[in-house]
Design brief:
- It contains twelve helices and ten strands.
- By secondary structure, the chain is α+β, with helices and mostly antiparallel strands.
- A hairpin with a 6-residue loop joins strand 2 and strand 3.
- Helix 1 crosses helix 5 and helix 9 crosses helix 10.
- It is elongated, with a radius of gyration of 21 Å.
- The N and C termini lie far apart (49 Å).
Length: 279
């Protein structure tokens, strides 16, 4: 069979399969994000039981060498610099065709590198079918066909983000929420939102916001630097710190850090993925 005919047959098969893919695998999109070369981010996510757009402007004005952990924005491929140089290098070393597809439990993560931005998707599927979905998305044509409708549907809302510094979920079309949350009892509603420590036989529960603050503070960041990195107020950081002291029965920051070391407090990317995916 000539190569052209074979290619056409493959293309038709992919398109036919794509049309029924959503219903066949009960696949739901729960996150879409863009990280631009100048540091600007657009994130659409309903991982917190509601859909909300985040638009972070002027982050390119931060000090040279500033890095951010993009897993906060749903991109879980690692720590990538604000510019796309390190991101492109990461993709070249670890990912074929500058696209990464992997799954953890019921979630499938797709990170795609373009000339101007990193694009990310997170899907939820049936646990037994995640391998099939991952294999399917590894074919660039299949992935593009599947996500094309999604991107077109949100084009207007994303364009509005370019004009308005902040856009809440209440400002976008209610119709768009339906395609992201077709089920009244969505899987992500059941996700735990805590990181558990065991210390002296006690189980201690920290929120992931507390974990983020403590991780930065234990690396030598000041409360003010931590607040700037997490884009919250210094007072909020101090509140998380005091709350953690109370939970671990510590009176000073040194005692708190000693307790955290004894409890083997080492939150990793894998811990974060478990937190995002386990019920």
């Amino acid at each position: 069979m000539p190569k052209r005919e074979k290619a056409l047959q493959y293309s038709e098969a992919v398109q036919g399969f794509s049309k029924n893919f959503l219903n066949k695998f009960d696949l739901k999109i729960i996150h879409y994000g863009k990280i631009y070369a100048n540091g600007k981010r657009i994130v659409l996510s309903n991982s917190s039981q509601f859909i909300e757009f985040n638009y972070l402007a002027n982050v390119d004005k931060r000090p040279a060498g500033y890095k951010t952990n993009l897993k906060r924005f749903g991109i879980v491929s690692g720590i990538i610099d604000e510019t796309l140089g390190p991101a492109r290098e990461f993709f070249r070393k670890n990912i074929n065709d500058e696209k990464e597809v992997f799954h953890v439990g019921e979630s499938i993560f797709v990170n795609k590198l373009t000339n101007n931005y990193v694009e990310s998707y997170t899907f939820i599927s049936n646990h037994e079918q995640s391998n099939i979905v991952q294999t399917y998305f590894n074919y660039q044509e299949a992935f593009d066909l599947y996500t094309l409708t999604f991107r077109d549907h949100f084009k207007a809302a994303i364009a509005n983000l370019e004009k308005n510094p902040i856009l809440r979920s209440s400002d976008v079309f209610q119709e768009e929420i339906k395609i992201l949350n077709p089920s009244e009892e969505a899987l992500w509603y059941k996700h735990p939102h805590h990181y558990y420590l065991s210390l002296y036989g006690r189980q201690i529960k920290l929120t992931w916001r507390e974990v983020e603050c403590l991780s930065l503070l234990m690396r030598g960041r000041t409360s003010l630097e931590t607040a700037e990195l997490l884009q919250i107020s210094k007072a909020t950081v101090d509140t998380y710190l005091e709350r953690a002291k109370f939970k671990l029965n510590a009176h000073t920051r040194v005692e708190l850090f000693d307790s955290l070391f004894q409890a083997d407090f080492k939150p990793t990317l894998f811990d974060y993925l478990l937190y995002k995916n386990l019920k």
